[in-house]
Amino acid sequence: MATGIQQSLSIALQELLGRFYSSQTNNEEKKAIELQLQQLQASSFNWLTCLDYMNAIENSYLWFFAATTIERTVNCMWKHLSGTERTLLRVRLLELFVNYPPDVPAMHRDKVAKIMATIARQQCISNERNYEEFVKQALDIMQHKFFLGMALVAAIGDSVTSAENTQATNFTNVVNRHTPSIVQALSKHCGMFVILVRDEKPTDSMGDEMRNKYCSQLLNIVQQYFSWMKLDQVDGTMLINITFIACSWSMLHDGAIGAVGALTELLYRNESLTQEAGRELAHGVYNIIGQETIKMSDDLYQEKVSDLVRQYIKRGWPYEQGDRSSMLHQLLEFTIHTKTPQLLMEKINIWTYVCGSRNGEDTDNEQCLVGTDLSPEFTKKLMGFLFEMLFFRTHPDLEQLDDDELDENSETELNRYLNQHIDLICQLIRFLDARMQEQAMLMLLEDHHSSPFVQGNVFFRGIIETVQGNSQLLDRYQDERVAQACMIDYITACNLLIEWGTMVYGKYPAIDYALQQTTLAQIHFFCELCDMLDHIIAMCTRMAPRNRYIYPAFARMILQLNLFMQITPSAQSIGDPAYVSRSLRDIVTHEQKLLLFTKLCGVLMQQNSAEPAVWTRVINAAIKLFNLYLSEELLGSKMTSRLIFDQLKGSVMCSKFLHLEPATRSEVYRTVCGCLLTLNDECVANMVNFSPSHALEEYIAFIASTLVKFTPDQWEHLHVEQQKQLIATLTDEMQHLNHIMSYYASQPGIMRSRLMSAMYGVIGQVLVLFRSTLAVATWATNDALSDRLLDTLLEFCNHSATLQSRLHLRLLEDIVQLLKELFVMEEKLGKHRLRSALTLLNTFQPLVNDPYSRTLVPKIIRVVIDELLPVVACYEHYTEKDESLRYEDVLNRLYDLLNDILLHHWQYFVDTTVHVRYAPKARVIIQPETFLTIMNAYGYTLLNNAEYPLVIGTVLSSLDTLHDRRSLYWLQLFTDQLLDHFMKSLLQLAVSNVGNMLMDQIIKMLHDMAVVDATKLKVTICDLNMTHDLNIFHELQSATDLPSFRMVMTKIINEAKAQPPVSKGFPF
């Protein structure tokens, strides 16, 4: 460092900065260091010192501290500097900047340029001529020292985009008046790079790398200016130069990418170019996409070009000059020569806009969906390419796509690729004539050589024949990669077939017939597979590496049958108005449907050694088809449930399905319950001595057999391992019941009522079990099994209360009592889980709001006041920091519940008899202790939960609503004991950061309190030392209406913020 700065100061500063940026320094120490640095900035290391020695500082931390000191002076202290100081600051920075060598660190150069641009903006406020001088200096520097001039021009653009809202418009207008000269200079330098590219032997002193770097920086600046400047200032010559650079990717790679980005930026603007510039922009897009060598460019360049073309088409082909078809052919060639599947997705996205697809990005803007008519032959060529790129067998590079990690839409990269291609194919179909559509569909359904759908069926046929002793057909799939590609392609082809068939079914008789025959053949084939399922699974187990692809394909076959059954005619036939097609489900005979369902039951009952996670996909597909039978009454109106019941009662309803994973098992149970619930709606005259309700009760008791049969006295006779097994079994059975209850909680009332009646006995027995002599504490150990049991029990209580809320009050009382015991037990064990607290609150809230449960409210209030409130209101009780729930959400739910208790059960707290109803001051508090507890909790929250603004907002809204609807502030108890405390807390809240967000509500509440007792408010303001201005107090006294009161209180609060009030301590 230069000798002018004391060596000791330099060392001290470097030591402080080194500690400040060290990862070993904690936050408290960093705050202390920050205060020391601020003191130095205001004393020995001020901006004048920094200016003197900026060029001599070598330590990077110290240099940026010096630059920040100067920047802070310009941003925060500019108004306090004298004219001489301002001039000195501007001149010295300019001298420092223009003397920088070419190899100066870019961060140093750009930082000084930013400060200079900020000074120019500050000066512009007082005199616009100063800014004109600054622009001229920047352009002059750019002429002689290109790298420095570019930094200044870039800083000018940054100063526009970073201007504060209050200054942005005026300042942007000033800069726009000088923009033509800046743009002219930028265009001139773009032209210089064009000359360098055209010159085979450049005469400049820059090497290829430096030339590319400077060109890229120049085009990035151009793009930035295009993002905010008036576009009528863009001239056609500049766009010609930019287009030329954009096509020069082989020589100026980074510059070409910047040029493409600059042109794209023009298309993002919702503003028009001049006619000349627009014409050159359109020519530029055509020229870039039409380069003969573009197919040899790298992926990054092609990705940027794709973005340019996509944006051009989204804008509706603006400034179009000539035949659009030529560009479409160029785009097709550009698409066909794509090297990677990731890049192909970018290009396919362009075609979605060409076709007017609503699956593209930014579909909210209808102007994007431009749609373009494509000739059938052109469409056929594009679809042929898409078919080739869609399947592994013809496009092995699909292996590059990730098939594990999910994106924000729960899709893997591979799924996104496949879905995008299928969507585009379905959009392109409408451009084919009838003959081409029929040919394409028949090729997918019947071509034994090229159809992945047919090949998948051949693979399964090979499995059947191998089981029968003939392995010839399956031999071709001995290679694992071939088998894998066959199965994945089969699933993809099934997806395409369903999407395509749904669109065109009913339009073309030939396609309809092909789909009908395919559906019937698939049903027959599936039944044939099911007949040999044991042998097939045994064989697949021996083919271990391949079975993880076979089972998903088998699951897709079941799902395909489900989707076939849902296809209905989409429109009137094209070409034969008299032709009317039937839904595919109507093509299938009753006998075939019944046979298919019988085979589904066999799949559900199938016990095998397949990997559970893989086999689950098969079961889930079967359950979906099962549910379709019920929801669509596939076996006939008023008889489907009975026929299904006949199939279930022999085997399915007697099985616990222990071979399935618990979640899948729950889904099977829920589906069987659905059949029994709908059985009530069908005629059961022929079902002698049969009651669907009784059958449902028995089935639910069967699901929960351990819960029902276990008695507390058996516990002590079990060994430790048996106790653990019992806990796991009880937990699983409750989870199954939870799944059933949660599903039907949102179903129509009749279904809910039937389930409610059927569940009554089981719920009662569960409550007896967990409130028995064993007590809840017996189950509550610190192991994972017990935690899972208690979590499931909490969920069970919540669902049970929701289900039984309008029927059985005795059950509800037992649920409330059990939840209380559970919560108290956890406190005794030293555990305060957010989950149990939230379950209590979620269970209580609907009961409190339901008039039917009003007799339960006193018990609920006691639990909330005595147990929940003291624990939940204090975060330090919650020692488990890894909870998935946020404490703020639970606390907010607590105050929501307290608000509902007060609002809907006001008569529990306050005398509401007729003779006091219209005399607010005469009302008597019936439960003063409980009422004061809730009010004190409100006051505590306002003062102690500044980090939870959501909770504070809930408390304020509750107080405000209670006063508007129940005249809360007029209660004698509130006026005498609480009013002044709430005034203090509201005023203190108003001057805090949280108060800024809630200011309107705070002032309204203070106004309502002032109406009750204005003197108390004035005394409180004085007590808090919020203002010394007597005139404000006079204004406050005369401010009776809310607008006037708000104006005066705003003055008081602003003065208090400038001079913080003294905290007096509050008694909440």
Number of strands: 0
Helix fraction, binned, reads 55-70%
Largest sheet: none
Gap between N and C termini: 58 Å
Shape: flat
Low-confidence stretches: 358-369, 1060-1068
Mean pLDDT score: 85
Structural Rg: 38 Å
Class by alpha and beta content: mainly alpha
- Give the count of helical stretches: 49
Task: Quote the beta fraction.
Answer: under 5%
List the helices and strands and how they pair.
Layout: H1 7-20, H2 27-41, H3 47-53, H4 60-76, H5 83-98, H6 106-126, H7 128-144, H8 146-161, H9 165-198, H10 208-226, H11 236-246, H12 253-268, H13 275-289, H14 299-314, H15 324-336, H16 341-354, H17 376-390, H18 413-428, H19 434-446, H20 452-467, H21 480-504, H22 509-531, H23 533-542, H24 544-564, H25 584-587, H26 590-605, H27 612-632, H28 640-648, H29 662-679, H30 692-703, H31 705-709, H32 720-744, H33 749-770, H34 784-804, H35 809-828, H36 834-849, H37 857-872, H38 887-904, H39 906-909, H40 914-917, H41 928-944, H42 949-966, H43 972-977, H44 979-990, H45 993-997, H46 999-1012, H47 1014-1023, H48 1030-1038, H49 1042-1058
